[in-house]
## 1
Amino acid sequence: MAEVQPWGGRRAQKVTAEFRAECEAANTRCWLCSQPIDYTVHRPNPDAFELDHFYPRSEFPDLTWEPSNFRASHASCNHARGKRDHPAAIGPTTIDW
Ligand SMILES: [Zn+2]
């Protein structure tokens, strides 16, 4: 099995810039909060675009460089999500109110 290059460095910068440009052209919304992203602002602004991985790199290193695993998010939303599972994995509550 081939070693997967860890996320980071010039390659990640390049991939992020390309994905950001795609999202900006399509006006892609944040996949976490469904609100529009202001593509004119940059980090460390919490409203800035950030590339998020739908399947966390920690659990799915093979998908680190897989464009279909990329999602547009606000930096603040991505950081709030942290290392937890993605929202869909939590699933609907089983508690019957
Ligand atoms: Zn958001």
## 2
Amino acid sequence: MGKQKIIIVTGASRGIGYDTVLELAKNPDNQIFALSRNKAKLEALQKMCANNNVQIIPFDLVTFEEDKLIRAVKGISSIDALINNAGLLINEPFDGLSIKSWRTIFEVNLFGVVQLVQTLLPQLSTAERAHIVNIGSMGGVQGSSKFPGLSAYSASKAAIANLTECLAEELKDKNISVNCLALGAIQTEMLAEAFPGYEAPVTSRAMAAYLAEFALNGHQFHNGKIIPVAVSTP
Ligand SMILES: NC(=O)c1ccc[n+]([C@@H]2O[C@H](COP(=O)([O-])OP(=O)(O)OC[C@H]3O[C@@H](n4cnc5c(N)ncnc54)[C@H](OP(=O)(O)O)[C@@H]3O)[C@@H](O)[C@H]2O)c1
């Protein structure tokens, strides 16, 4: 048996987060905490994992009941990796995109991450070297191609990219590395909402395999980096 790793994955009820939990759970040395709002889907995911190493945290990153989260992670002394994968995309032309939608997108894609990192800092700073992986988007990268309907989403992903650089600096003395993967098109339900009819060249499972490996080992080679992970536009 190798060294046990404790990993938190947000947005685990579907898409890349779901497949990343499945991937990580193949190794019985990994202990995974899967977070999203949809309890039934998390329970179904847990059942899919034969090593009995997945615990679920039904949790809304917008309402953010901090006490509930603290109770859920109470028994954990340290967290080796936090994968901030949960994301919200609303595809709406700018002139019709309400300020309420802007706020909700930023609540999930930015403030949810901020609060999660703040809440989990005690356990992240006691790991040998923890790795926070923020899932960004090519749309949030300066100078990349932009697409109509995605202004709030892309702006929120630009914000998470910048936050990554800031946190890497601020948390380095706590033994925490922070990186951002700026993803290109991956075949998921979110992609279908953003680009109806478009077929992405990368599957969610393939992305999940890359992400699981990166979360566990990428911080040996990167810190404070925004890494494009894209083979196509979009
Ligand atoms: N797919 C792509 O082509 C692509 C490209 C670039 C970047 N990305 C990024 O990659 C990540 C995963 O994308 P995906 O395509 O797998 O998305 P997805 O299929 O839409 O899944 C999004 C996940 O986020 C969770 N989530 C949404 N709102 C939440 C909230 N308020 N509280 C807690 N969890 C919440 C959802 O769970 P519940 O509904 O159960 O809460 C779901 O599990 C996202 O950050 C996305 O922006 C994806």
